[in-house]
């Protein structure tokens, strides 16, 4: 996406009062302590083990490492990951 188009979408989001993550399709990550996280606006699940979960988003990958990781729920809208989350890394 060109920078001009993204800037136009940001301005439209602000003018319309819609959240930028909705208009731009950006991932929304919510973390609850060390044991739960929810990701919205993702594109797909790339890798899933009990120690690593990799999720593709519009802007790159989110890499979650830890112990006893589990994808508790997985819908078209959001994903809930539980376990002992030790590290979250954004890769572009």
From TrEMBL:
From which domain of life does this come?
Bacteria
Instruction: State a single Pfam family of this protein.
Output: YabP
InterPro entries per record: Spore_YabP/YqfC, Spore_YqfC, YabP_sf
State the name under which the record lists this protein.
Answer: Sporulation protein YqfC
Please name the gene that encodes this protein: yqfC
């Amino acid at each position: 996406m060109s920078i001009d188009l993204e800037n136009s979408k940001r301005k439209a989001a602000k003018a319309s009062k819609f959240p930028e993550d909705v208009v731009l399709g950006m991932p929304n990550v919510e973390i609850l302590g060390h044991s739960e996280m929810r990701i919205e606006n993702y594109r797909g699940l790339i890798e899933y083990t009990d120690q690593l979960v990799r999720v593709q988003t519009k802007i790159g990958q989110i890499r979650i490492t830890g112990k006893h990781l589990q994808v508790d729920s997985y819908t078209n809208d959001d994903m809930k990951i539980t376990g002992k989350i030790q590290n979250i890394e954004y890769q572009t």
